[in-house]
Amino acid sequence: MMYGQENKQPEPQNHQSSIQKTFPSSFGSFYLSQGFRQKGIVSNDCGPTSVAMIINIILTQESVKDLSLRKENIIYQTRFHFWDRLPGTFPNVGGATTPWGIVTAFNQWMLKLGLPWKAERISGASRHTIFEKIVSGKYISALKIWKNGGAHWVNIIDFSAEDNMVFTLDPNPYLVHLPPNRRVQKESWEKFSSDWQRRKVWSSLLGIHKEIIVYSRDL
Predict the structure, then answer these.
(1) Where are the domains of the chain?
(2) 9 falls in which pLDDT band (50, 70, 90)?
(3) Chain segment 124-156, per-residue pLDDT in tens
(4) Residue 168 class from Cβ within 10 Å (0-12 exposed, 13-18 middle, 19+ buried)?
(5) What phi, psi does 97 have (nearest 5°)?
(6) Percentage of the chain surpassing pLDDT 70?
(7) DSSP-derived 3-state class of residue 199
(8) CB–CB of 98/83 below 8 Å?
């Protein structure tokens, strides 16, 4: 089961002007790094880190001051089941978080914080689904699956249908070297979807395909 392993990370992209034209570059200030397990080996903490970033965006949106979460809060203060997040002691895949684990973590934290938000898993989603959710003011986490069998959670914070571009807040640890206004990544739908739609044996066995987690506010 390789769904949490991230052996390869894309290089940071310089799209500062395009990002500023589409939406506030201040989203980059919410960036958090998933970190490394050891020198040169990226951790499998992309899931908890992505959840922490989304919660921090929501805290700002809800005018909750003096509170900011880190990946450690999600990892150690969420009541994960074994099937939500693999133990860190597992070789290679330790720390991998499933789609249902992302939902578990977020919804537990909304209860703790008393905020009217909820996470919902959508499996087999489509481009239209993603665009519709973003346009309606929701946030999304999406699971990319690499060619080598690893996988990686990223947050989608905007989608330009006109340019067919996806804007992501990615916990890629190499982005830490960029200034905040360049940490939001821009990717063509074609490139994004080639990873997002990919199937591997482990993902088929687990019923994981074209996964998104949608975060919405209860009215």
Answers:
(1) 16-217
(2) low
(3) 999 999 999 999 999 999 999 999 999 999 999
(4) buried
(5) -115, 130
(6) 89
(7) coil
(8) yes
With 0-12 CB in 10 A as exposed, 13-18 as middle and 19+ as buried, what is 87? exposed
pLDDT in tens, 16-41: 333 333 454 679 999 999 999 877 88
Q: Which two tokens stand for residue 144?
A: 């990319």
Rounded to whole angstroms, how far apart are CA atoms 112 and 107? 9
How distant, in Å, are the alpha carbons of 43, 152, 174 from that of 36? 5, 14, 10
Burial class (CB in 10 A: 0-12, 13-18, 19+), 207: exposed
Which CATH number fits the domain 16-217, given the four candidates 3.40.50.1370, 3.40.50.2000, 3.40.190.10, 3.90.70.10? 3.90.70.10
* Two structure tokens written together for 145: 């699956």
How far apart CA 54 and CA 87 sit, in angstroms, is: 23
In this structure, which amino acid lies at residue 100? W
**Which of 40, 45, 34 is CA-nearest to residue 5?**
45
Of residues 99 and 82, the one with the higher pLDDT is 99
